[in-house]
Amino acid sequence: MEINENVFRVLSACAISINFLLIILILRKSPKSLGSYKYLMLYINLFEFTYAILYCIEKPDLFTKGSAFFLIANFKQSIFPKLMACCSVLFYGGFYGITLAILALHFIYRFLSITNNRHLNSFNSWKIILWFMGPPISGIIFMLTGAFIMSSNGDSDRFLSENYPTLLGNETKIEDLYYVGPFFWPKYNNFTTDQYFNWRTAGGAMIVMGLISLSIAIMVYFGVKGYRSMNKLIAQSNSSQKFRSVQKQLFNALVLQTFIPVLLMHIPASAIYFTIFFDKCTEYLGKIFTLTVAMYPTFNPLPTIFIVKNYRNALKDSLICVEDAVLRRSRTVHPSSTAYSVNTQVS
């Protein structure tokens, strides 16, 4: 299963365009009732915009087989110097950690907003910096785990030399690769079939899966509490119709924005970790995960654009203006071309 590189280029271009559009809509068309949520939305979409740009510039290869799951940079194919190519691999893993924390933060904020909790005021002061520090810290933990716990060694070098297509085809050498990732069941140095359990990788996997589990637990906990609180809020007659409508729109957008990363990122990554633990992973899972991760920044902004009424109407008005301009130009060009044709025939 080989995926054409043009697919990734198209997805990257779409992700950059859509996230840029949403950033403009947030800045210019946000309803006042959004409050400080506007800044959280900007924070999230600036991250996704940056991720899409970096992914477009440098896309590490993702290789899975047996009990191995590696992010690989090939120095020969990279446009960056070696140090930056290595960093791109770590950033790739770090962005996954940031995504986990952003989802959790998103749910916490929606709950605080719906319940009008006193801690919501922290998003309107300098304390918002403390909230926004959470995702980068999660990303740094992922990067450090990859760099120091799931780094390459002689056993993983041997495994790649025997299985990685680029090395098998003599297109490059192991010295031209930088890679990180879990490898649960390497072979002994002096045996061809006997394997041992890599406790170092197990420690790194516990950190990664622990952060994934924490993110999911926060999402479920605050999601359920937020949904119940929202139903109570909508039932209250003393809340304005506009406020209730905006809250419902944002919660619906949040539900879809949760479904997208869970489907495109959490499930494939969890499936890979589960299969490599039992030494049953295939290369196809890695290819699928490469594609779904590329799709994430393209699809994730869409629920906000189409569910939030102000953004949807602004986009609709813009499209109508473009359509009118095109049709007006067509009506202007068509009669003149017809007249020219008639005159030519008469003469």
From TrEMBL:
Segments passing through the bilayer: 6-27, 39-57, 89-109, 129-150, 202-224, 250-276, 288-308
Claim: Cell membrane is one of the keywords in the record: yes
Keywords: Cell membrane, Cell projection, Chemotaxis, Cilium, Glycoprotein, Membrane, Olfaction, Receptor, Sensory transduction, Transmembrane, Transmembrane helix
One of the record's GO cellular component terms: ciliary membrane
Cellular localization per UniProt: Cell projection, Cilium membrane
Topology term for the membrane: Multi-pass membrane protein
A GO molecular-function descriptor: G protein-coupled olfactory receptor activity
InterPro entries (UniProt xref): 7TM_GPCR_serpentine_rcpt_Str
Top-rank taxon, per record: Eukaryota
Family in the record: Belongs to the nematode receptor-like protein str family.
Subunit structure: Interacts with odr-4.
Protein's name according to its UniProt entry: Serpentine receptor class r-10
Organism of origin: Caenorhabditis elegans
